[in-house]
Design brief:
alpha+beta, 7-stranded antiparallel beta sheet, Phosphatase 2c, domain 1, globular, 5-stranded antiparallel beta sheet, single chain
């Protein structure tokens, strides 16, 4: 185990070459400890906050769906609600054993809160009926990563020149594959390939199915979160190659550029976090 772990993270989003709006959203954030002194007898201690090092890193992507500006509204509302829950209600710190289950449960609750917020907006504004969004997040704490996921945005682990998909697409095409009706090789051509079987918001008031994952990271690894505007155009071999000799910022720029060069038929969003070690 390395005594000190650092994360280099970046994100990019682009409208693409066909869409008239960008309905994707992303977050790259550090969660830090803070101590704020309100009063003190110490002459050299002003009333100011003391910020500690990062406790963990939060990465999120969301891909809104719906006519007009509805998809944009859905993804923005969902991420605003998610961030509010994390900042005000979650207990985040060192975890292990059963506490990891508690952490994932809290993130699931944050996604459930985001779902309820989008559903409230639909009830208040019927013209937005059907708006929804995907939401894929990763929380990195030291060399542990915790992932929660709804929809078909993805999280990959990039390691040793390979891209390992950690999430499962929640689409009707994937459900047909699971049932043995559709071959995996037929998914991309299926009319159900981008029809969501679970989403934040949408028509159902019931909580979406939230999938959770966890993995151990190694120095040199990277987590890649992306919307389907990237994976429609860039295969997994090139996802892994994007790290070669590039910083996180440069890798994000490269992947977005490659998606645009290949057609840019959808909004494209990329968040990448690479594990560094001292």
């Amino acid at each position: 185990m390395f005594s000190k772990v650092k994360l280099e993270a970046a994100g990019r989003t682009d409208q693409g070459l066909v869409r008239t709006t960008n309905q994707d959203q992303f977050i790259v954030a550090q969660i830090r400890r803070i101590l704020e002194v309100s009063q003190s007898s110490l002459p050299s201690e002003p009333s100011r906050p003391h910020f500690g090092g990062p406790v963990g890193h939060l990465l999120v992507v969301a891909d809104g769906v719906g006519g007009g500006a509805a998809g944009d509204r859905a993804s923005a509302l969902a991420l605003q609600s998610f961030l509010q829950f994390v900042s005000e209600s979650m207990q985040i710190g060192q975890v292990g054993g059963s506490l990891e289950d508690d952490l994932l449960a809290q993130f699931s609750q944050a996604i459930g809160t985001a779902h309820a917020r989008v559903r409230r907006e639909i009830e208040q504004r019927p013209e937005l009926s059907g708006m929804a969004t995907t939401l894929t997040m990763a929380y990195v704490l030291g060399l542990r990563a915790y992932i929660s996921h709804v929809g078909d945005s993805r999280c990959y682990l990039l390691r040793d020149g390979e891209a390992l998909r950690l999430t499962r697409d929640q689409t009707y095409a994937q459900e047909l594959v699971d049932q043995g009706v559709l071959l995996p090789s037929e998914v991309d051509e299926s009319r159900w390939s981008h029809v969501l079987a679970s989403a934040v918001g949408g028509q159902s008031q019931e909580q979406p199915e939230i999938l959770t994952y966890r993995c151990l990271l190694e120095p040199g690894d990277a987590l890649l979160l992306c919307t389907d505007g990237l994976t429609k155009h860039v295969d997994e071999a090139e996802l892994a190659e994007s790290l070669s000799g590039r910083s996180a910022n440069e890798a994000c720029d490269h992947l977005v550029t490659r998606a645009l060069e290949a057609g840019g038929t959808d909004n494209v969003t990329v968040v990448l976090a690479r594990v560094l070690a001292d």
